[in-house]
Amino acid sequence: MKCNHDTLLAAAAPLIELAVAEDIGPGDATSLSTLDAAVILEGRIRAKEAGVIAGLPVAEAVFQRVDPAITFSARVAEGQEVVAGEVVAEVRGPGPSLLAAERLALNFLQRMSGIATLTRSFVDAVATTGATILDTRKTLPAYRVLDKYAVRMGGGMNHRMSLFDMLLVKDNHIDGAGGLTLAVERARAMYPELPVEVEVRSLDELREALAIVPPLDRILLDNMTPDTMREAVALAGGRVPLEASGGVSVETVAAIAATGVDFISVGALTHSVKALDLSMKVEGNKGQETRGKKQRAEGRVKAAKQVLGDRLVILGHHYQREEVVALADYRGDSLQLARAAAGTDAEFIVFCGVHFMAEVAATLAKPGQHVLIPDPGAGCYLADTATPEGVQAAWRALDAVFGDAEVEFTPVTYVNSSAALKAFCGKHGGTVCTSGNAEKVLRWALLQRPRVFFFPDQHLGRNTALQMGIKMDEMVVWDLHRKPEQDIIQRAKVVLWPGACNVHQRFRPAHVTAARAQYPGIRVIVHPECKAETVAAADGAGSTAYIIKQIAAAPAGSQWAVGTESRLVYRLQHEYPAQTIVPLADVPPYCATMGQTTVENLAEVLDTLARGELRHEVTVDAGTARWAKIALERMLAL
Ligand code: 13P
Ligand code: SF4
């Protein structure tokens, strides 16, 4: 269910009234007495811990309610992940009212951001499966719309809003009515227009529910073990969507999702809220000081560039922060940056991107070249879904089925993977691909051997294979929990690792439908890390460089909904003002780890480099580098 900002603000308005009466009443005695009424203060709301922001429109409404003279400028988007210390919003206005509103605005923002943050951790935990995270009605009384909005900002989906908008026949209804089928018949007779979901406690009840005609809209599996859920999924055979429910935690949700259920509802999202730690500091002159600090950091970067001259090259990926990209010597997608890294003679390559990208540069580095990364903790969720041990184990299992996997399969790793996996491909006659050359690479791989083992991104693998005319039933997703079924795997032309990017997986076909309804004639373009059904609904798919090229070549007045990381989408908006460019999803996703590089940590690395010290150098051991380089060079030669 969609809650737009108007619905949100309408629901928040009476709560804000109550809160203002409860907290401020006739006036904030301390602020009124200590501050000059005419003093204008500036404040910054910052995250004190990493999390997902939700509720900025409500926070703004609180400040406005307390004093319309206060201005509120959000510095991040709704649903955006922030790092500790990041500025979330800036406020400015008469001192006494700014401080009177502070706590109330933060209370709303902290609670909603806490819900969004917890939801995101569940969404991320199931990102490699097809399961969708749902909320429940276990919301704070009267806060239903706010709580459920925050769930959506976290990437979850809303279950029913209230008792009147959907039929959910539960155990008590079944027992009270005298049977499951009877209860459904009575419900449907009185409310034929409402969707029906039924809760089942056993496989027998599931069989009864599956026999109901017309089919139910959804069946809820109550408190079942993963093994029973697996059986339930097999029994349902895709005829009715299944929802798992009951005591789901971040620790157990991945195993539940792996059973193949379509939805997982989690009461904890809204009943056990831990507020995200945010604070507001009045910075007065400090505001300028902070801006000054950033400018000084930019100055430090420029000064270091002057000192180091041709000895330094700064590479920046399209998903980097605006101010970082502005300082890069070269901006590109991962293929362009790999080529730039391989082509440069600079002694120091500072890679503003994520760790695997810097590893590629380090692997291709010439003797005496050094690769540095501003934040060594900036990893990639997708890359982390495949470990060398996991891939080796799958390869051994393929050996067991085919005698020798190496005769049958060319291993291909997406560049978003560790150097160890690239080395694995180098050793076993395989190669690397990026989203910019995946089709060319897959064609090459299938010329070498009859089949391909593709990791870690199942979506890029599937989308590319589909584009080449390979059929869905010729592809198998590797099951990490079970031995491969001989006949299924024997038929497979492409075996896909079950990895996915938690940013791109969030784009759904429904977003495409919504964009087309809102902007008739809009062209939808997405990154191939999106699900196949999203790519199928879009007008085109390609790497970040491809997306940029399409938009750059389009005439003024064209309209685009873009399904990729939001910093790039907003940059395109800015760079092509004559076109309408919007993010595809209603909660535009950001890559949190790409955002970990800041001007400040870039300046730190460059300052120390200018002083002759190497900080945060990325290295790849010689054995791994040798084979990874072979795999990469095979790709670069194509
Ligand atoms: P590109 O290869 O398009 O740069 O994408 C890299 C990436 O990480 C996408 O999520
Ligand atoms: Fe990795 Fe996804 Fe971020 Fe790209 S957007 S770096 S694939 S987590």
Q: Overall mean pLDDT score?
A: 94
Low-confidence stretches: none
The biggest beta sheet is recorded as: 6 strands, parallel
Number of strands: 25
Radius of gyration: 27 Å
CATH top level assignment of the largest domain: Alpha Beta
Descriptive notes:
Helix content is 45%, strand content 16%. The longest helix has 31 residues, at 95-125. It starts with a helix and ends with a helix. It is flat. It folds into five domains: 5-114, Quinolinate phosphoribosyl transferase, N-terminal domain (Aldehyde Oxidoreductase, domain 3, Alpha-Beta Complex), CATH 3.90.1170; 132-271, TIM Barrel (Alpha-Beta Barrel); 296-378 and 597-619, 3-Layer(aba) Sandwich (Rossmann fold); 383-501, Rossmann fold (3-Layer(aba) Sandwich), CATH 3.40.50.10800; 504-590, NadA-like (Rossmann fold), CATH 3.40.50.10800. The chain is built from 27 helices and 25 strands. Bound molecules: 1,3-dihydroxyacetonephosphate and iron/sulfur cluster (SF4). The site of 1,3-dihydroxyacetonephosphate has 12 residues, from helix 14.
